[in-house]
Design goal:
The chain has a single domain, classed as OB fold (Dihydrolipoamide Acetyltransferase, E2P) (Beta Barrel), CATH 2.40.50.90. The strands form two sheets. Strands 1, 2, 3, 4, 6, 7 and 8 form a seven-stranded mixed sheet that branches. A two-stranded antiparallel ribbon has the order 5-9. The chain is an alpha+beta fold.
């Protein structure tokens, strides 16, 4: 389904109009102050991860919604001219794969080389 009006919040989250969208199956570095105490947050540069996702927002975007997380964000596969955005972030080494966050192994099927 087509979607528009999206902008990047961080390396794994976008806002599309009033909808907050969390990319399925990945965990990107948290922006400063956003990693909750006691949580093992993804390593890396959160600014680089955010910029990487922004660079992938080209062309017409399509969304496949698969559910909601505990924060009320839409869990989804999102793709554009550069392909699936979860796969993009993994291929750019700007996020890590989380099989426990990959509903029905969808991301693993779409980009198997990046999820090993």
């Amino acid at each position: 389904m087509p979607i528009s009006g999206c902008h990047v919040v961080d390396g794994d989250t976008l806002r599309c109009g009033s909808e907050r969208v969390r990319l399925l199956g990945i965990d990107a570095p948290e922006l400063l102050g956003h990693c909750r105490s006691g949580r093992a947050c993804a390593p890396g540069d959160p600014i680089a991860s955010t910029r990487s996702l922004q660079a992938a927002l080209v062309g017409n975007l399509r969304i496949q919604r698969v559910g909601q997380d505990r924060y009320g964000r839409t869990l989804a596969l999102l793709s554009g001219a550069k392909g699936d955005l979860s796969c993009w972030q993994l291929a750019q080494h700007q996020a890590r794969y989380r099989d426990d966050w990959d509903n029905d192994g969808r991301v693993a099927r779409i980009c198997p080389a990046s999820t090993r």
